[in-house]
Amino acid sequence: MRFMILTILCLVMTTFANQLSATDYSWVAAKATRQVAYTTDNENWIPLRTGMAVPDKAWISTGPRGRLELKRGVERIIYQPNTLAAIHTQGDDHARKTEIIQQIGELNLEIERRARPHTTVQTPFLAAVVKGTQFKVTVGTSDSAVSVDRGLVQVTSFSSGERSNLGAGQGARVGASGMKVDGAFNKPTITHVSPSKALVPAVDAMVGAPSIPPGATPP
Question: Cα(179)–Cα(189) distance, rounded to whole angstroms?
């Protein structure tokens, strides 16, 4: 009888541990206002409430008064009003990689520090790659900007191929004319790589609110 009880207890603990492991890789809404919703099919929008887990690859939209704070372990992403972005995660544990597709608006990110780059933010104008840092990404209809509070962020312009490593107190803005960098104490250097194509198009300047373009789904 004792052996049977111990066996059942071990099975329960294993199942519970597996559930926790799966949950650790999900982004959960720590705080959400009413004007926050997500879609997995680009057609039907579901209100996102505090405590809900966000499906992988789901597009999340915030309205003019919408704000959202997502958490995953020690990591945090804050959606400011009028923001449209999706999050895609591959792998698990130390092999986990996260890609954020941000079409419009502002994200404040606090990313866990690891030995290798594991998180990328893709906008219509630039890509930001990090190992672990605290930074902000702002996307408009004609450019994108990155500002770094802590850590190091590698920013690359799709159209010009310009690239810069930004540290704390430094920033970059990327638009049609290329990349411009600045810093509180010194200006970061710019190198060049081959131009590439963005994964998501820019929101048309005539559109007043974020909308998902046809076929613009995260990879």
Answer: 11
Amino acid, res. 203: V
- The CA distance from 27 to 75, in Å, is 9
Q: Which residue in this structure is represented by tokens 């492991």?
A: 21
Rg of the chain taking only CA atoms, in angstroms: 19
Contact 145, 171 (CB under 8 A): yes
DSSP track, the chain: -HHHHHHHHHHHHHHHHHHHHHHHTS-EEEEE-SSEEEESSSS--EE--TTPBPPTT-EEEE-TT--EEEEETTEEEEEPSS-EEEEEEES-GGG-EEEEEEEEEEEEEE----SS--EEEE-SSEEEEEEEEEEEEEE-SSEEEEEEEEEEEEEEETTT-EEEEE-TTEEEEEETTEEEEEESSSPPP-EE------SSPPPPTT-SS--PPTT----
Distance between CA 62 and CA 82 in Å, rounded?
5
User: Model confidence over 20-43: pLDDT tens digits?
Assistant: 334 457 999 999 999 999 999 999
Q: Considering the entire predicted model, what is its pTM?
A: 0.82
Each residue of 92-151: pLDDT tens digit? 767 788 999 999 999 999 998 876 768 999 999 999 999 878 999 999 999 999 999 999
Query: What residue ranges define each of the domains in the chain, with the CATH number in brackets?
Result: 2-192 (2.60.120.1440)
Rounded CA-CA distance 181/145 in Å is 10
